[in-house]
# Entry
Amino acid sequence: MNLKELAANLGLSQTTVSRALNGYPEVNEATRTRVAEAASRLGYRPNASARRLATGRVGAVGIVYSASDGYGPHTSEFLGGLGSRLGADEIDILISTVDDPAEELATYRRAIVSKKVDAIVLHAPRPDDTRVALLQDLGFPFVLHGRTNTTRSLAWLDIDNEAATARATEHLIQTGHRDIALLNGPRGLTFTLHREAGFRQALGKHGLALNPALMANGMFSDETGFRLAQAMLERRPRPTAFLAGSMMTALGVFRAIRSAGLTLGKDVSMIAHDDVFPYLNADTMVPSMSTTRSSIRAAGGRVAELLSQVLAGKPADDIHELWPVEMVLRESTGPGPH
Amino acid sequence: MNLKELAANLGLSQTTVSRALNGYPEVNEATRTRVAEAASRLGYRPNASARRLATGRVGAVGIVYSASDGYGPHTSEFLGGLGSRLGADEIDILISTVDDPAEELATYRRAIVSKKVDAIVLHAPRPDDTRVALLQDLGFPFVLHGRTNTTRSLAWLDIDNEAATARATEHLIQTGHRDIALLNGPRGLTFTLHREAGFRQALGKHGLALNPALMANGMFSDETGFRLAQAMLERRPRPTAFLAGSMMTALGVFRAIRSAGLTLGKDVSMIAHDDVFPYLNADTMVPSMSTTRSSIRAAGGRVAELLSQVLAGKPADDIHELWPVEMVLRESTGPGPH
DNA sequence: CGCCCGTATCAAAACGTTTTGGGAGCCGGA
DNA sequence: TCCGGCTCCCAAAACGTTTTGATACGGGCG
# Structure
């Protein structure tokens, strides 16, 4: 059932039928209802490809993941927030997966120049991100989840990793901790650097030296958390507090603490960053976990709204959102030795 | 840069250029390389919408998630496997999110009749799934991840939940456990029923009665696992072994066991189902976790291949894959009291 | 009565591909 | 010489929309 058939069926022209369905004013209200009725009765739905070809708009946003390290537990949460918000406007998400990192830029370029999407969501940026540069060069609309170091105009949403980490670190210092370990994310990513900066800042503010042995990088998994924390706990003096980069990391750290015969919240404290996974609740853990918390699902939803703004022509310079991160103190943090 | 411009630039017709680029035989090899060179030099890429309109093929598969309960930790893993395999053939994944469950069928119908995708991936089915019925009625190609009770032909891939659960249960029985608890998935889903069937089967085989108080349903989260296990551990006689539906559930059960002053692997045993998350490793836990294991990422990859087969016209009746599930015994299982 | 204007409709162009149906030009065989 | 077949290329149709430019029809107004 296509437009021509539907029009013939109604004894109207394609033009009129198309306008009636798309809410143009210059069509008689009686005709409009008659068309609408026939369309739903005959199950007519415009062919998406034809409409896209004619309008130039696609009704989809793109997001690229790398097969190796792209997909994680936060992925589904972010997509859930993004998709839920976009779905309300009948906009789809187009996911491309790239195996070879060298193919990444080409994948973006392809999606753009073959007009598969109206806009792109960029994530996990580096300070000097080549993807950002590419999209800016092409003048293609996009929203960045995270930040770069660029001064050129771009739309972004990020959480304040630096302040969050600084605040958590400072809390630990103020409650008597001196040997604080930071289990950070993968090296080179902006948010990793921001967290390190916040860590340094808080230490510096209180005149504490940074111990490089107590700073480590890795992906956010329980195993990494376990391995890194275990190694650190074997050092003397051993760390009395951990900042865990994610809840997964925190699980591993917790295990390492127990394995060392120590008690979390008493011998050793921990503050973890919590992306608010529905299946892993910091509040109901035993002991309950102190966290810096920011819902990544909410971020996804908001990014969807920012995409709409970008597509509506709002200048990218006006679209900067830095979300504060709340700190929730629970049982995993206790006084330190000082 | 479109085809017409490119053709004009080369002094050739659109036909020839199109054929040259798409590898048709009736074009001179010299011409073909000349065209290819010009195309890449000028950065020509065919407009996806136009090509789709002309060919009727889209180059994308669809998958629908419900905003409320659709996205979980397994989602990203499955998408990773699916996308990685599809990406190799330059096929994209189109994700739609539906907020209102009543809108779900309409969303599928819309994606199909407006020709947004070539095929669909269906997941988390119920025995009598209305989505399956819809797709079969419409004659639309799809692959089901999971199973229904239907005898009509459809392509599916599933893991053998029944056998896996039966085997795990039986192992526990054989090692002296009698009061075994099953923490199952959400009520009504096929895999939940399969696991329950496997559980019943193993108990029956050994002449054990099923204790309804030791069977519970819920989503796979640590909190659910904790809550359910805690309640069960307060009963007398208390369960001496748990079958946890997922690694998240297992984390909660583990916590409940510790909270009750008991030791996992000694006082209480546990076998968890492991979807093989890269960020949560059963082998490196303390104690290491006995599991029934099946990579959901691998399943995603295989589903992609099955989609290709369906689209290539292979009869759905020939596309049934039931994956065996391996059981890996580790430290979380020990002898029971009998 | 003639003119203009708003309403409601239409035929045809445009979007950028692929595919259909030919059609030159050339070579070899009859 | 003629013809069939092969190689290489082309003009135009087709895909199903939206959008452009026009047009018929009344009615109000001078």
User: Anything to note?
Assistant: Chain B has a mean pLDDT of 95.
